[in-house]
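Open question from group meeting: does this chain pack into something compact, or does most of it stay loose? Before anyone orders reagents, we agreed to write out a predicted structure and look at it together. Recording both the input and the output here so the notebook holds the full record.
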Amino acid sequence: MPPLVPSEIDPFAGSHYYLKRQLLKMIGATFDIYDSGGQQVLQAQKKGFKLKEDIRIFGGPGFQTELVGIFARQIIDFSAAYDVMDARTGQKIGAFQRKGWASLARDEWTVMNAMDQPVAVLIEDQLWMALVRRLLTNLIPQNYDMLVGETRVADLKQNFNPFTYHLAIDCFQPPDQLDRRMVLAGACLLASIEGRQSGG
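Structure tokens returned:
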């Protein structure tokens, strides 16, 4: 059983997280999210048998409270958009739009606000490393930067593990300037989509 998280702790107040995919999940996928102290603070669940991507992030005692939902707008995810919703209010937080053709060489996502206005990008670190990864599949861990203009506001770095998907998440701006829900939603998308493609 996962440790319980006291309800008064804000799981979106941290600056360092670690995402780990649970093993032996036959249908869908589950991702455990830990804070910098090694305490599990969130759990993301990807639903199986869904034509469109459907990921929910849970918190609270026993991880029973749905906090954030991530939903694909269409079935084909080559250049799909994913809405990020606040599950408690029903309000849209933002969205991610994958740049399909550009992502063939170097994966890139547009990060949008609630009005679908671009505010940042989530992109693989370097073009040449991205090309090498495509040749060597999952032998070289992925590394993504979230950029606002030229400023790197978050880093999402896969740790090499031949058996499952691990992702370290570092935020470089305070929570009032960088919504952790969007950062962690992006991490869950990478773990679900990119991890699946690389065999993780």
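Observations to bring back to the group:
The CA atoms of residues 138 and 181 lie 27 Å apart.
The chain has a mean pLDDT of 84.
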